[in-house]
Amino acid sequence: MSEFDAIDPNPKFKFNLRGWAFYHFVKLLTPNLSDPKVLADTIRKDRAQGPSKPPRKLAGGLDWRESAENGMRVFRVRRKGAPATTLKLLYLHGGAYVLDLQAIQWNLIEGLLSRIDAEVIAPIYPLGPEASWEVTTAAIRGHFLSRAAEYGPKNIIVCGDSAGGGLALLLAQAMRDEGLPQPRALVLFSPALDLSGSGPDQPALERRDPALSLKMLKEIGPMWLKGLSPEDPRVSPLFAIQDNLPPTIIFTGDREILHSDGLRLKLRNPSVVHRGYPEMMHVFPVSPLREAQQALDEATAFIEQHKP
User: Fold this and answer.
1) pTM as predicted
2) For 42-68, what is each residue's pLDDT tens digit?
3) Stretch (H or E) spanning 303
4) Which end of the chain is more exposed for a tag (fewer CB within 10 A), N or C?
5) How many angstroms separate the Cα of 33 from the Cα of each of 27, 37, 125, 144, 207?
6) Is residue 80 exposed (0-12), middle (13-18) or buried (19+ Cβ within 10 Å)?
7) How do the domains of the chain map onto residue ranges?
């Protein structure tokens, strides 16, 4: 009997006109990354553009600078006029392990900093297909240990969305397994926790997801895994031991396949706080919706609760 037998493979969803309209809006704007040609073209354009800097509409409220740390570009960001603080939010951006920091993800950074006094540290980590999972995770590990030595691990909370959320949990698990200091807490938005896409409810969720698909997982995965099984706990943290980890909160919506990852992590680790939002889509806190503002409020309350 599987520990995931409690997951309903045919979950029931209540029709919501607002959610239906938002679904079609997102569907219209999202490239089909399950198409190899579209994916290759998207990666090519992403490399030519590089990681996004703060969009003009947000830049006026932020003090930010770029530095080189541990062989990576790093963005350091604070709210303009914010008081000095020891709290650091290490932010690992999403992008399916192959795409860089996007302009829309600055909404997460700004949304957190508008609610809490902290400095966001965002490393621009190595991506597939140029880099493998080993290179990516080693770079993030090294960066975290350097910042932990500089500020103390108790002052660092790791945040991440999508692939970055999965990388954040992988980091905490690696630190535990090596007997090294862990982050103070984890705040994860739509984290990718199972690269095999094996959730029994995921086919049903896929029909409601305007951005992600199981086919996309299978198309992108090999670019980063380089022959490693997608079920390996070194890349799919859902399958790792879940004991002795930092306090964790995760946000998902029931219009994304990664909602299943959140539900299954909660089954494996009941101490995780899982906030599942009806009718919301992948990394919905980047949007202008009221649910996004509520999720950011909850995230910052969690940070306030667990900061030193």
Assistant:
1) 0.94
2) 999 999 999 999 999 999 999 999 999
3) helix 290-306
4) N
5) 12, 8, 21, 30, 16
6) exposed
7) 31-306
* Nearest alpha carbon to residue 276 among 11, 5, 9, 3: 11
Phi, psi of 3 (to 5 degrees): -70, -15
Length of the chain in residues, anyone? 308
Q: Which two tokens stand for residue 21?
A: 């309209």
For 46, the token pair is 């992403």
CATH number corresponding to 31-306 = 3.40.50.1820
Distance separating alpha carbons of residues 95 and 78, to the nearest angstrom = 23
How far apart are alpha carbons 22 and 123 in whole angstroms? Answer: 31
Which pLDDT score is estimated for 26?
84
pLDDT digits (tens, 9 = 90+) for 253-283: 999 999 999 999 999 999 999 999 988 999 9
Q: How many CB atoms lie within 10 A of CB 135?
A: 16
Confidence of residue 1 (pLDDT cuts 50, 70, 90): very low
Instruction: Determine the Cα–Cα distance for residues 127 and 100; give it in Å rounded to an integer.
Output: 8
Q: Which two tokens stand for residue 79?
A: 């709210």
Question: In the chain, where do the E strands start and end?
Answer: 62-69, 72-79, 88-92, 119-124, 156-161, 185-189, 248-253, 273-277
Q: Are 201 and 207 a contacting pair, CB within 8 Å?
A: no
Interhelix angle 133-151/214-225, nearest 10 degrees: 80
- Residues 208, 259: contact at Cβ < 8 Å? no
Contact status, residue 226 vs residue 157, Cβ threshold 8 Å? no
**Tokens 């303009």 appear where?**
80
Whose structure tokens read 């932010």? 91
Helices vs. strands in the chain: H and E counts, helices first: 10, 8
First to last CA, the chain: 41
What amino acid occupies position 72? M
Closest CA to 198 of 264, 128, 132, 250: 264
CA trace torsion 244, 133, 196, 100 (10° rounding): 100
Which amino acid belongs to residue 21?
A: A
